[in-house]
């Protein structure tokens, strides 16, 4: 690594807070998360939940890759700033396509193709920005080419093929794309040149995305109540739901977040990168769990407001959400204390 690039990474490490541009980038995911929960709610079935998780997985890799990019490079300067601005526009397009990503037979494929092709374009832009930003670091350029070269082709084929096929084949291929991307990124990153200059920046960005997911739970509770006639039962249900949301907040921020940041901070080199990588993977379970719980709480309040018992779907989704959130937060705590 040259002195120039070492200086750039040191400057990044000294910045312990996300830039306004990064916060703006994260705000796009507020809309994206809302779209995902609506997608799952519209189907109210196992297939809709799996379909939503596939879409969320695609969005997650886009968020995580850019969060790590901004940790290694200064986000509001030069090519990285341009890349993130372009990414904001593309992620917005992905988000508005979400309601139509799973067309019924005979319906237009435009939404599914917009989402899949948009993600491929986002990946290519991310790769190009990484290569330009790493122009003084040959090892990092090789790492970018290794990881993205192995990842982009199979993921692109799976997403675009699924968009054309539709139905169950699309769901299977899109879930496979999320899994393949996770496996290839992890496998090609072991002992590689990815570094994490700032543990504080890492902790803040991951904490912010959890806050965004928890914000979706507040939106779901509020919408569920506003779509119902205000009764004591609706008020009580809303209070119970907010207690669940507060419990998730306390589990993460009250017991884990600071400890994890400190643990990652004291680590160095590839060991720090490895622990932080596992943390990023576990955060997908944390965020997915929060969004599923949000979906169930909003639906339950609407059923109660309509004078109906809570639907089995809402109970099931709540159970799945907590079954993802609790083990993922527990595993993150264990990794952070190891």
Overview features:
338 residues; mainly alpha; 2 domains
What does this structure look like?
It comes from Conyzicola lurida. With 338 residues, this protein is mainly alpha-helical. It has two domains: 1-195, no CATH class; 198-338, no CATH class. Helices cover 83% and strands 0% of the residues. It has helices at residues 3-14, 20-43, 46-72, 78-97, 110-133, 138-165, 167-189, 199-226, 232-254, 257-266, 269-305, 312-337. The longest helix is centred in the last third of the chain and has 37 residues, at 269-305. The radius of gyration is 20 Å and the shape is globular. The chain starts with a helix and ends with a helix.
Question: What topology emerges from the helices and strands here?
Answer:
Elements: H1 3-14, H2 20-43, H3 46-72, H4 78-97, H5 110-133, H6 138-165, H7 167-189, H8 199-226, H9 232-254, H10 257-266, H11 269-305, H12 312-337
Helix pairs in contact: 2-3, 2-4, 2-8, 2-11, 3-4, 3-5, 3-7, 3-11, 4-5, 5-6, 6-7, 8-9, 8-10, 8-11, 9-11, 10-12, 11-12
Keywords: Membrane, Transmembrane, Transmembrane helix
Organism: Conyzicola lurida
InterPro entries: Low_temperature_requirement_A
């Amino acid at each position: 690594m040259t002195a120039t690039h070492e200086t750039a990474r040191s400057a990044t490490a000294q910045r312990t807070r996300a830039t306004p541009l990064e916060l703006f980038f994260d705000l796009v995911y507020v809309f994206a998360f809302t779209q995902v929960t609506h997608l799952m709610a519209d189907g109210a079935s196992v297939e809709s939940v799996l379909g939503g998780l596939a879409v969320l997985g695609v969005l997650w890799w886009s968020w995580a890759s850019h969060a790590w990019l901004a940790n290694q490079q200064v986000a509001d300067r030069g090519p990285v700033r341009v890349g993130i601005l372009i990414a904001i526009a593309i992620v917005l397009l992905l988000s508005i396509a979400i309601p139509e990503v799973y067309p019924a037979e005979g319906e237009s494929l435009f939404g599914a193709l917009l989402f899949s092709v948009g993600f491929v374009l986002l990946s290519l832009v991310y790769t190009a920005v990484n290569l330009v930003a790493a122009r003084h670091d040959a090892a990092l350029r090789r790492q970018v080419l290794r990881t993205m070269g192995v990842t982009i082709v199979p993921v692109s084929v799976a997403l675009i093929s699924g968009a054309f096929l539709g139905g169950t084949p699309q769901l299977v291929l899109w879930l496979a794309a999320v899994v393949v991307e996770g496996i290839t990124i992890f496998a090609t990153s072991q002992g590689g040149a990815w570094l994490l200059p700032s543990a504080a920046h890492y902790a803040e960005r991951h904490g912010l995305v959890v806050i965004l997911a928890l914000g979706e739970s507040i939106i779901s509770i509020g919408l569920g109540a506003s779509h119902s006639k205000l009764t004591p039962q609706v008020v009580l249900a809303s209070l119970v739901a907010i207690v669940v949301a507060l419990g998730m907040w306390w589990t993460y921020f009250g017991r884990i977040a600071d400890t994890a940041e400190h643990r990652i901070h004291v680590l160095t080199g590839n060991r720090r990168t490895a622990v932080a990588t596992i943390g990023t993977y576990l955060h997908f379970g944390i965020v997915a769990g929060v969004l599923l719980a949000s979906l169930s709480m909003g639906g339950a309040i609407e059923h109660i407001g309509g004078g109906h018992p809570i639907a089995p779907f809402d109970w099931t989704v709540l159970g799945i959400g907590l079954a993802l959130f609790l083990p993922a937060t527990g595993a993150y705590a264990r990794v952070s204390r190891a």
